[in-house]
Amino acid sequence: MPRYDDNISISVIRRLPRYLRFLEALKNNGVIKISSKELAARMGLTASQIRQDLNCFGEFGQQGYGYNVPTLYDEIKKILGLNHAFKTIMIGAGNLGRAVAMHLYFEGKGFDLIGIFDKNKELEGEKLNGIEIMLDDKIEQFCKEHSPEAAVLCVPNEAAEMLCSKLVSYGIKGFWNFSHYDITVAHPDAVVENVHLGDGLMTLCYKLSEQQNS
Amino acid sequence: MPRYDDNISISVIRRLPRYLRFLEALKNNGVIKISSKELAARMGLTASQIRQDLNCFGEFGQQGYGYNVPTLYDEIKKILGLNHAFKTIMIGAGNLGRAVAMHLYFEGKGFDLIGIFDKNKELEGEKLNGIEIMLDDKIEQFCKEHSPEAAVLCVPNEAAEMLCSKLVSYGIKGFWNFSHYDITVAHPDAVVENVHLGDGLMTLCYKLSEQQNS
C-alpha cells in the first residue's frame, strides 16, 4: 500500500467517490489524460479545488501534462481501500433493503454481501441478487461460521438498538446505517456511515425556496 | 420571511437537517434550553463549530443562556423553507421508489407527494402510502392539471435523460435525483439534489480500511 498524508480530512475523502465516477466515465470513453482545468469544467469545480483535493495524496499530475486518467482512477480506488472485500451482511429485506441489495454493486465498493436477514418468515428462502434471505434468528450462527465484518442496517429505529449490540458482540465492526439510531453513542469503537435520505430532500427544499425568492 | 446572511455556504445548509434531528429529539423530551457546549457534546461537534454554523443566521443564542430549543428548531425549519409544500411527483415505483414513497415523510420536509408514475402496467392502480401509481404516459396530462414543481427520479440512468427533458418542459423545476444521470449538464437552470448511495459505502470502506491499518 502506498503511504499518503495521514491528515487527509474526511471531507476530502467524501469527495473522492465523485472523482471516481467522472474518471470512470472518462476511462470508458478512452480518455488517457486530462488537465485539472478540463476535469474541473466537467465536474463543476475550479481547477484549484481539484488540485487541492488531489494534492493531499501526493503528486499525480505533471505540470503541463495533466492527470493520467487510468492511474488517477486506480490510485483513488486504492486510497479508498476499494480493493478490499469486507464480508458484509444486511439486516432488513423490506423495500429499502431490497433496493440496496438489488441496485448497488457492493463488490466494486470494497464489500462482499454474503447474507441477508429479515424477521418476516414469509421472506425466508427468497433470493435477492442470488443471496438467500434468512430468518434473523440465524444471524449469530451465520456470524460464527462466516465472520462478517460489516453490516447494512435497513431496519426501523426501534429494532436498531438491540440489534446493534448483538452485531457488535458477533464481531461486526462497520455499519452502513439506514436507521436513524445513533450507533456510536453506545458503541464508540464502531465504524459507522449513516444514511439520512431525508436530509437531501431538505437541501432541495432550501434550493427551491431560494430560487423562488430570487 | 426573516432575512439572513445571503452568503450562507451550502455546506452549512447541508448540516442543518442534522441540527434539526437533534433539536427535535430534545424538544420531544421537553428540553427548552441548551448550551452550545451541551449540544456539541450530543452531536459530536465542538461548541465553536456550532456557534459558527448558527451565527450565519443571526444571534439565536444568548451569552450565558444558551439556545432556546423550540425557537432554534422553528428558525432552522424556516431557513430551510420547510414551511413550503412543493407539489411533487415520483417517477419509478420499483424497490427504490417504493422505499422512498413508503418511508419518507415528504410533508414535513417541504414537499407534497401528489403522484407516482411507472412504465410497468402491472403496477397501475396500486397504491403507495395512499397515492395511486399511474402509467408514465399520463405524466404530461397530470402536470398540466396539477402543476407539480418537483420530481423524484427513481429510474435507471438510461431512462433519465429523455425523462428529464420532458419533465423540464412540463414545468418541473427541482429534481431529487436517484439516477446517476447528470441533469444540470443539459438543464443548467434545474435545481438538483443528487443521491449517490454508493458514495457512503465507499466512505465506510475507507474508514474500515483505516481502522484495519491502524
- Sheet/helix structural class of chain A: alpha/beta
> What is the terminal separation of chain A in angstroms?
50 Å
Considering residues with a beta carbon less than 8 A from a beta carbon on another chain, report the largest interface and each chain's count.
A-B, 60 and 59 residues
Instruction: Output the strand order for the largest sheet of chain A.
Output: 5-6-4-3-7-8-9
Taken in chain order, the helices and strands of chain A follow as: HEHHEHEHEEEHEHEHEH
Gyration radius of chain A (Cα, Å) is 20 Å
Shape call of chain A: globular
Oligomer: homodimer
- Mean pLDDT of chain A, nearest integer? 90
User: Percent helix among the residues of chain A?
Assistant: 40-55%
List the helices and strands and how they pair.
The structure is a homodimer of 214-residue chains.
Chain A (H helix, E strand, L loop, with lengths): L9 H19 L4 E2 L1 H8 L3 H9 L11 E2 H12 L5 E6 L3 H9 L7 E8 L8 E2 L2 E5 L3 H8 L3 E4 L3 H13 L4 E4 L5 H4 L4 E4 L2 H17 L1
Helix pairs in contact in A: 1-4, 2-3
Description:
Two copies of one chain form a homodimer. The first copy, chain A, has nine helices and nine strands. Chain A is 46% helix and 17% strand. By secondary structure, chain A is of the alpha/beta class. Chain A has helices at 10-28, 36-43, 47-55, 69-80, 95-103, 139-146, 157-169, 183-186, 197-213; strands spanning 33-34, 67-68, 86-91, 111-118, 127-128, 131-135, 150-153, 174-177, 191-194. In chain A, the strands form two sheets. Chain A has a seven-stranded mixed β-sheet with strand order 5-6-4-3-7-8-9. At the A-B interface, helix 1, helix 5, strand 8, strand 9 and helix 9 of A face helix 1, helix 5, strand 8, strand 9 and helix 9 of B.
